[in-house]
Design brief:
The chain is α/β, with parallel strands linked by helices. The chain has a domain of 240 residues: Amidase signature (AS) domain (Amidase signature (AS) enzymes, Alpha-Beta Complex). 40% of the residues lie in helices and 13% in strands. The protein is built from 17 helices and 13 strands. The strands form two sheets. It has an eleven-stranded mixed sheet, sandwiched between helices. It is globular and about 55 Å long.
């Protein structure tokens, strides 16, 4: 009987299974005991009976044969809760299994342990919901793991499982990876299918995983990537992601080091760490730093507005009666979108999207890689409903009864005004960008690659105030394999702990 879950990566756990040093049942029993004893609140649902049966019949010759994995709460597993991390759907049960999850289980041989906590509907980079409470960072209890794949990050970094599924529609893989010292890879849009149901908009979400090593992520892609007929935007996979690791000659690759990509405000110490990690990587690999300047539009507000259309589709006729069951920020997002979103707003968003595309294309004409921060700072308070840049008073106003009553009244008035003056939303957004820059930094570093669709990876880049920060590396569309090798070089030259120091 193993006394604790495996502390290495998933690939080395498979090797241990194949060598007879450990059995899938032993590993699962240690995992279940650790989850039960954990105070991280990483899992929202655990299915011991089903997992033990899978462990007993595990085929360790498969890529992840017998490896216990967590599944992000926003993915579906037939027979398990299908809550979208919301009280609104707390009694809903999944009737099918997500394509990527089915591939991980059936083709990969992974043992599905349970569902990891996510932010409500995947809409925020915080780790608190009305349904599940607060998920904590293994590096420091009381700090966030971000979102939306927060529970997955907590489970992997916290030593509970070696691998978890995740998805990234605005940074939801990279943001938690940055906060917890993990590898977080967002592939080119469509790299891993989103079926069996895939909305056509806002066309930013990419599926993936949170992992302790680069090879774990590459092996996950070998299993899960590839076209699926239920997701017409998914891409064929060339395969060989793990086998191809280390095959790129990085010498001579042109790199732009832009820690504050998009003009984002960074907390003290973050830029220094990002530049130091970038310098180490560039020097070790013989890459060439290139001085470039780029002025990118902030699409945070427009990205949020566009996401809400699919949320309204999911809520259906439950809205607005269900408003009281929603996280305040999600409710506010819905009301703001209903107030401000119109054809003129949509046109402005599309114009800014084209502007971003032109700027990003011009940038990648000059360089092969861009290195930036993953998050504006290290992990903020776990119970916060907004980013670390938000003053405490904002949280209080957003959650107090008086504050919310005032907000509802103001939005009702504005809804009438926008009907008379359709240009008003664009003017208000412009004012928000000028006056609320710190608040709009929430996810602004990562959203760029979701909107543009290019691959980006978050790599651990050291600690600020004892908490991890991430180095984010961006590449051109379909150059995912190049990013894997950059991450592999960082793993070898810089290195990082596979779990948080306080983890079992």
């Amino acid at each position: 009987m193993a006394d604790a879950p495996w502390s290495g990566d998933a690939c080395s756990l498979v090797d241990a299974f194949r060598a007879g040093e450990r059995s899938p049942r032993e590993e699962l029993e240690a995992t279940l005991a650790a989850i039960e004893a954990s105070d991280l609140n990483a899992f929202s649902h655990v299915d011991p009976e089903r997992a033990l049966a899978a462990a007993d019949r595990a085929d360790v010759s498969q890529p992840f044969g017998g490896v216990p994995v967590g599944i992000k709460e926003l993915d579906s597993v037939e027979g398990w809760p299908d809550t979208s991390a919301s009280l609104v759907f707390e009694d809903r049960i999944a009737t099918d299994t997500s394509t990527a999850v089915a591939r991980l289980r059936d083709d990969g041989g992974a043992v599905l342990v349970g569902l990891t906590c996510a932010s409500e509907f995947g809409g925020l980079n915080v780790s608190v919901t009305k349904l599940n409470g607060v998920t904590h960072n293994p590096w420091r209890h009381g700090k966030t793991v971000g979102g939306s794949s927060g529970g997955s990050a907590a489970a992997v970094s916290g030593g509970l499982v070696t691998l978890c599924s995740a998805a990234d529609g605005g940074g939801s893989i990279r943001i938690p990876a940055g906060y917890t010292g993990l590898v977080g890879m967002k592939g080119t849009y469509g790299r891993i299918p989103r079926g069996p149901a895939a909305y056509s908009r806002p066309s930013t979400e990419v599926f993936g995983c949170l992992a302790r090593s680069v090879r774990d992520t590459a092996r996950h892609w070998d299993v899960c990537a590839g076209f699926d007929v239920n997701d017409p935007w998914s891409l064929p996979s060339p395969g060989g992601w793990e086998a191809g690791l280390g095959t790129h000659d990085l010498a001579g690759k042109r790199v732009a080091v832009l820690p504050r990509l998009g003009g984002v405000h960074l907390d003290p110490g973050v830029e220094d760490h990002v530049r130091a990690a970038a310098h180490t990587l560039i020097e070790a690999c013989g890459m060439v730093p290139v001085d470039v300047s780029v002025d990118l539009p902030n699409l945070t507000i427009e990205w949020m507005m566009g996401n809400v259309s699919t949320l309204l589709a999911e809520l259906g006729d439950r809205w607005p009666a269900c408003a009281g069951d929603l996280t305040e920020a999600i409710e506010d997002g819905l009301r703001l979108s209903q107030t401000f979103y119109n054809l003129r707003t949509a046109a402005t968003a599309e114009k800014k999207r084209l502007e971003l595309t032109a700027h990003m294309a011009a940038l990648f004409d000059q360089v092969d890689l861009v290195m930036a921060a993953t998050n504006p700072g290290p992990a903020f308070d776990a119970e916060s409903v907004m980013s670390s840049s938000a003053p405490p008073v904002v949280d209080k106003v957003m959650t107090s009864k008086a504050g919310r009553t005032g907000l509802s009244a103001a939005l009702a008035t504005l809804r009438v005004a926008t009907g008379v003056a359709p240009k008003l939303p664009a003017a208000l957004f412009a004012q928000a960008e000028r006056r609320l820059g710190d608040l709009l930094d929430m996810g602004a570093l990562t959203i760029l690659s979701n909107v543009y669709g290019n691959p980006a990876v978050s790599i651990p880049a050291g600690l600020v105030d004892g908490l991890p920060v991430g180095l984010q590396v961006l590449a051109r569309h379909h150059h995912d394999d190049l990013l894997f090798d950059v991450a592999l070089a960082a793993e070898r030259e810089i290195g990082w702990p596979m779990t948080a120091p306080a983890a079992p």
